[in-house]
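Lecture 7 notes: from sequence to structure.
We start with the chain below.
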Amino acid sequence: MTETFLNSPTFIWLIVPILIFIARIINVSLGTLRIMFISSGQKKIAATIGFFEMLIWIITVGQIMQNLTNVLCYIAFAAGFPFGNIIGMKIEQKLAIGSTIIQLITQKDATKLTSTLKTLNYGITTIDAQGTQGAVKLIYIIIKRTDIQKVTKIIHQFNPKAFYTIEEVKHINEGIFPTPKSFYSRFV
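Predicted structure tokens for the same chain:
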């Protein structure tokens, strides 16, 4: 009975491509996460994810090779790639592992902004500098990636026209950071 279903046209032309599509989404999402863990220096997690990523890929390609005449398998494999990228990026954004630096340049008085950030226990460094249009204040804020929206909202609240850049930080040695939330509370 089961063997008959596995050889049925419905299974071969509908179920197999759907399974390939889902497997490809998972495969590419894992690849996105693996790259994230590699860039943050978490080698063991990256290697483990890489193992499952390749296992899924081999199984998926094996199914395509068993169904070479089924063009829907090729389409499902290709369509799973962009969806896997999107889902992988969304997962990566939710995890938000690592730290970033916000480099802010403002001509406006930044006293209220810096005192608010200090009150919230963000470590900041300010430097008086000279820009092409006069005196400016450089403000450096190193934060956890999970705090980007919160801090940029504060910046916009005090200076909507402030110029800032956000860059990934590879390694941090000491610093001042708000008390971290538990891993569980970040997702609930």
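Points to note: Strands lie at 99-106, 124-131, 134-144, 163-169. The two ends are 44 Å apart (CA to CA).
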